[in-house]
Design goal:
Blueprint: H1 31-38, H2 57-69, H3 75-82, H4 86-97
């Protein structure tokens, strides 16, 4: 079981939009649940979780749709994305796409 499952009890519609620390562009809605794994700014905190910041909009949108449809078998992602409207999903993909991509510095 995922340790983040308790967070799913909070309705997505009630999650406040968070300010992005690294960027001034508009943050994606519902970023609260996404941030648990993918980071508030779209930069994942764990090596086994993908960064979302700066990914192409069409790539993010299609990936989220495949999770939502169950074509990618990650129950947590399906649960989180399944409750979003198409408009919210579009805004979420766009919000992460416009973020500055993570570029690791050498020697870190």
């Amino acid at each position: 079981m995922y340790p983040f499952m308790l967070a799913l009890a909070v309705p997505l519609a009630g999650i406040a939009t968070l300010a992005m620390a690294r960027n001034t562009s508009t943050p994606p809605p519902q970023v609260g649940l996404c941030a648990a794994c993918h980071g508030r700014d779209g930069v994942a905190r764990r090596a086994d979780t993908p960064n979302l910041a700066g990914q192409r909009y069409d790539f993010l949108r299609e990936a989220m749709n495949t999770y939502r449809r169950g074509c990618r078998e990650v129950p947590l992602m399906r649960t989180v994305l399944g409750s979003l409207s198409t408009t919210q999903l579009d805004a979420l993909a766009h919000g992460y796409a416009v973020q500055r991509p993570f570029c690791p510095t050498s020697g870190s």
